[in-house]
Every structure is written in structure tokens, then in C-alpha cells.
Structures
1.
Amino acid sequence: MSDNDETDFPIWRTPEGEPVSCVEKIKVLNENLAELRELAQESLEDAVLMGCDEQQVREVLAGIVAGIVNPYRK
């Protein structure tokens, strides 16, 4: 992934599968994703430099994402 490359971002979709069309919403979603990627990258680099197992760090990061709760679920 290259920094600030729009092709790194998904086409955001509604629950019905339609593309999100609001430019401001897309901008916020992409900024959030970029921040998350940057923090995950920094966390991986720090852990590896401190002698941690890369695969374990990746599993922990994946577990964090898997454990995120949707407070708006109906």
C-alpha cells in the first residue's frame, strides 16, 4: 500500500450494497482507515523491533478488529 493513494481505499457501500455517494462521508471513512493503517503499521514495527513475533502481533491486531462491537446493531 502506498501512502495517500486513493486506490488503497474500498468503495464504501450501504447495507443494501449501494455505493456511498456523499463525498464528505467517504472522506471521513478514508481518513479513519488511513489512521488505522498507520497506527497498525507503527504497532507492528515497534513490536518487531522489540523482538516480538510478527505473526503473533498480526493475530493480536486481527483479534482487535474482530472484537469491535457495533453499538448501532438493530
2.
Amino acid sequence: MSSSTTLKQAAEPTAAQWRVITAALKLFAEHGIGGTSLRMIASELGVTVAAVYHQYHTKDEIIFAAVETQLRRLGEVVDYAETEPTPTRARNALIDRVVELTMGVGRSMSAVLNDPAVTGSFSHHAGYRDLLRRIRVLLLGDDSTKEARVRVATLLAALNGTATHPLVAHLDDDTMRSELLNIARQLLPRNH
């Protein structure tokens, strides 16, 4: 999967493309990326494979569009947090909105973002690396201690991984949101 496109260059998906992405995300969460085919996506939508091809020619294009959309939303969250007047308010705004991104479709998106094929591809993505740097600054500030870095890494892994974990699959978004915010506040470095 090529990830040379920057976050700003990729267009927001059309309504038809978003339906394909949403169906694919559901199937990716159930069967994994490797276990999902274009035929399965077409079946989930109740259309022909040709109709899916009309929107995206490969499964990689669907994955890339989904990830780009989520990264663009994450970029908007980081942009917003960076406008807050104090480091504490910026950090809280970031956490609140990142938790919000993990709700609804974000639950399925977390399964895609945690897939090794995706993380490997996007680790070289300039926009993704820049977002990680900006998030690190918002969450850590000047604190580069081992404890702070471990807490932030644990927090980010928890936010991404918890949303799709089978133990909480039955929980509604309000409950998940409340619990994730509570855990996030406990995991954040103490000296910020």
C-alpha cells in the first residue's frame, strides 16, 4: 500500500465511497483485513463487485481512503487542541476529541489502524509522523521521562485497542466514552 499522499491532498470520500468504506470497516473488524475480499464488501452492500470497483479498484484503495479520512479527522482534533491557551486545556481537548473519534465508526476504524499492514505502511507517511509528533508534544509537553513516555504510549494503545476489544463490544458509546475518559485521565503523565 503506497502512502505517499499527504493528509491534505486526499479528497474526502463521496457518499457512495463512504458507504463502501463503512461496509469494509465492518467486515475488517469481523474478519480482519486479510480475511475480507471485495466480493464480501459488495455482498455487505447488496451490490455487485463492479459497483464497488466503480468507487475503488482495490481493497488497498479502500483501506487507504479509510485511514486517510481518519487521519484527516485526527489532524482536525490536533489543530483544535493546539489552539487552547494552556497546556492542560490543550491536553484535555485532545483526549476528549480522540476518545470521540473512537466512537461509532471509529470502533471499526481502530481495528484497521491497528492492523500491522496499515501501521507498517503509514509509519512512513509524513502526515502521520507529523501528527504523532504533535500529539506527543500535546500529551508530554517537556516531560521526556521514561514514566511519561510509557504512560502516553499506554494511553494511545488503550484508546485504539479498547474500542474493538471483544470484552467491550456490547457496550454502548456513552459507556465507552465515559470509561475511556476516566482511564485516560489516570494514564496521563502527572507533571503536565
